[in-house]
């Protein structure tokens, strides 16, 4: 709603009651904690009633406290340091049943990703990939795991895939130097966003290539240069990035592309299976080994 929520709160400070000023001061000084507090807990922390917190949300232009809380979480997505994220994780999850809480949180992210991702953008991204002269894939920091996964399968499907290493800024631009019309850059980044990925997507867009952004929000810096925006939730404020929903989205992208190129891929995988068998790429399971030993 507001481009800078904290500035807006400061601007409205003179209109607040004493209790609302206490809320505003806490939110300004401790936004990393306030963003994940219920209205009741925030009120108790600053010494006001829950209803005062709800009225505060309305006073600054939100329909209710949940909308304000969501705005706070969106605002801090790229601001929290690793230490702050660790503190939030401890507060949210505690030392209880970590397995259940984390898995349930990831399930919720996949559900929200399904609701938010545009099927039209997804379909057009698939068409752009299939029609590309060269496909560039880039993901820095923790997103490198996602980029590597996508690169592995796309290299089995396409002869024209290039994985962009993000080890240094100069190397990035050297690798995408010739990117242009007819090419596609799949740029993957989640909070905290990689500057190199954002800058590379900007360069690719200016060079005439299509940019497919796999990110978390329309407010992501990758969105500005994206021809096709694929959104996946990754909002667990932990020191560990949750990549479950983004990986699920990328998995869907691989499968959709595979279905569109079914005949060609069938031939490729038939050849690969022969190579894998000939050179013993995969370990055979016990059942197969037993059957072969009985035949010998």
UniProtKB/TrEMBL annotation:
A biological process from GO: carbohydrate derivative metabolic process
NADP is among the record's keywords: no
Gene3D superfamilies in UniProt: Glucose-6-phosphate isomerase like protein, domain 1, Winged helix-like DNA-binding domain superfamily/Winged helix DNA-binding domain
GO MF annotations in UniProt: carbohydrate derivative binding; DNA binding; DNA-binding transcription factor activity
Ranges for domain SIS: 125-264
Domain called HTH rpiR-type: residue spans: 3-79
Domain of life where this protein originates: Bacteria
Keywords of the record: DNA-binding, Transcription, Transcription regulation
Transmembrane segments: none
This protein's record includes keyword NADP: no
The protein, known as: Transcriptional regulator, RpiR family
Provenance organism: Acetanaerobacterium elongatum
